Amino acid sequence: MSSLPSNCAPDASAGARPATDATDERIARLERRWQRERSARIAAEELLETKARELYTLNEELRHLASDLENRVEERTRQLEEAWARAVDEANHDALTGLLNRRRHAELLGQSIEAAKADDGKVALLTLDLDHFKEINDTYGHGAGDAVLLQVAAQLRKGVPEGYAVARLGGDEFSIIASNFTETADVVAFAATLLELVKTPVFYAGHELHVGGSMGIALFPDNGRDASCLLRNADIALYNAKGSGRGNFVLFDGSMYKEILERQALEEEVRSAMRSRAFIPWFQPICDFETGRICGVEALARWQRRNGDLVAPGVFLGAVEACGLMPALLDMMLDQSFEAIAPMVHSGRIGYVAINVAAAEFTSGSIVERVTLAMERHAFPAQALVLEITEEALISDFAKASQAIEQLQALGVRIAIDDFGSGYANIGYLSNLKIDILKLDRSLTRDLADNQRAGAIIFALSGLARALGVDLVAEGVETEIQAIALRLAGCTLMQGYLFSRPLPASALPAEFGETKRRFHSH
User: Fold this and answer.
1) Does the pTM of the predicted model rise above 0.85?
2) CA-to-CA dists, residue 26 to 12, 20, 29, 36, 376, angstroms
3) How does residue 91 score in pLDDT terms, banded at 50, 70 and 90?
4) C-alpha 299 chain-centroid distance
5) Buried b or exposed e, range 384-406, using 16+ CB within 10 angstroms
6) How far apart are CA 148 and CA 202, in angstroms?
7) 224 class by beta-carbon count within 10 Å (0-12 exposed, 13-18 middle, 19+ buried)
8) Pairing of strands 202-204, 207-209
9) Alpha-carbon gap, residue 418 to 320, rounded angstroms
């Protein structure tokens, strides 16, 4: 059908247009609303999708953070556990050797004693101290000392049965706690085995180092009912082992404790005597046999107790040394000897005073200054002072000893080697050091009457002394036979009871006149 022309179509706009316009407007509003809702929905979906992605990303980050935090917590926990284990190990073990330390040793000793009490058992405490360890340190250095300590620790581990505790208490002191034994003989055999193991040579920097040990043993319950008592008594036994020649072991007994108490009382008395300046010099003449003149005197320390009794050095010197008072004693001897002898020196009555200096004091580094100050205090001439040292001073530290000798001799002080020929005698150092006086050990003088070899030795030394320009003095001359034999051997300077015992300065004779006349009348 063909469509009608537009001008021929019926005209319906007059009645239908208002309704159509309203519908279109409504449709338009609906479309716009739909578009807004659609846009809002799309925006919401996009927002939700964005937030979902953000939430996913955040969740992943949190998951990674949680995993990382868990790993870090695990690592930190492991580090703390390792640090705690190291701290516990360090708190219980010696850093160098890995053995138990003093604190842990004390704990285990107490525990072992308590267990022994419960089981009616026994405990042995063995305290070991290395012999001459200081000499190794001083000679080869602390590296050598550490090598020795490590070797000893290894040997002790090797020789100690399972269940025994080995500790390094400090320095060169070790300790072993032994239990589960029945007889004391078992402990004795065990101690002997350990001492043999300790003797194993140590090789360090091309040197073969030999060490030994001394050991003190205390038993529970025989020698103590608690840890502190057992430790004390083991130390006392160790002290006795070292005093009896080293290289051995000693079982504690009650008499040792009494000796310790007596020694402690003596040391306290010595300290008090030092504070009150109760140590005084007495003087023994050194005589020229040919002239009868007292050419010098040796100052010998005496301790004058409050009751007036005099105590000889053999009684108190050990206590003085143990108290660390040897420097004070030397200073006191210098001052009092200079004060007493200076008038006799200035008048020409006596040529010199000889004062003994311990090896440790002579090599301490302060001897030159101390002697110089003492001479200045008393206006004492250096040429009238002789310092007597033992060969031990030279052997212990030759470099320091030779330096001190040179410095003292530069001041005018003379040096004498005391007890020459007593066992350390070494002619070699006489060529390297300018010694002024050699004092023959009294053992050579004592053997003159019965031992021709002693006379031959003195004759040879007399010739050596003359060749070197060194004075030779014989000590311990007690009989006329000894004096005559010494004169025949070429030694004319003598000291001993034949001429005079040690005397206070006020009682010194001008010469040994009667004795001289008796000799010259023969």
Assistant:
1) no
2) 21, 10, 5, 15, 132
3) confident
4) 32
5) bbbbbbbbbbbebbeebbbebbe
6) 6
7) buried
8) antiparallel
9) 20
Beta-sheet pairing, 123-131 with 294-304 = unpaired
The amino acid at residue 126 is: L
- The conformation of residue 40, written as its DSSP 8-state character, comes to H
Place of tokens 């300077």: 493
Nearest to 458 by CA among 432, 478, 483, 428: 483
Name the 3-class secondary structure at 192. Answer: helix
Residues 97, 149 contacting (CB under 8 angstroms): yes
Give the HSE-up count for residue 499: Cα atoms under 13 Å, Cβ half-sphere. 32
- Left (φ > 0), alpha (ψ -120 to 50) or beta: where does 356 sit? beta
Neighbours of 204 (CB within 10 A): 18
Per DSSP, helices labelled H in 6-141 are: 13-92, 102-119, 133-140
d(CA 392, CA 396): 6
Percentage of the chain beyond pLDDT 90 is 44
Is 418:388 a contact under the CB 8 Å cutoff?
A: yes
Please state the rounded mean pLDDT for residues 326-337: 95
- Alpha carbons 299 and 504: distance in angstroms, whole number: 10
Question: In whole angstroms, what is the distance from residue 292 CA to residue 521 CA?
Answer: 13
The token pair at 384 is: 């009238």
- Count the helices and strands in the chain (H runs, E runs): 18, 16
Q: Closest Cα to residue 301, out of 347, 336, 276?
A: 336
* The two structure tokens encoding residue 366: 């302060």
457 C-beta neighbours (distance < 10 Å), count: 18
Q: Please state, in angstroms and rounded to a whole number, the distance separating the CA atoms of residues 439 and 414.
A: 13
Q: In which element (H, E) is residue 327 found?
A: helix 326-346
pLDDT at 110 over 60: yes
Structure tokens at 340: 């007493």
Q: Is 216 strand, coil or helix?
A: strand
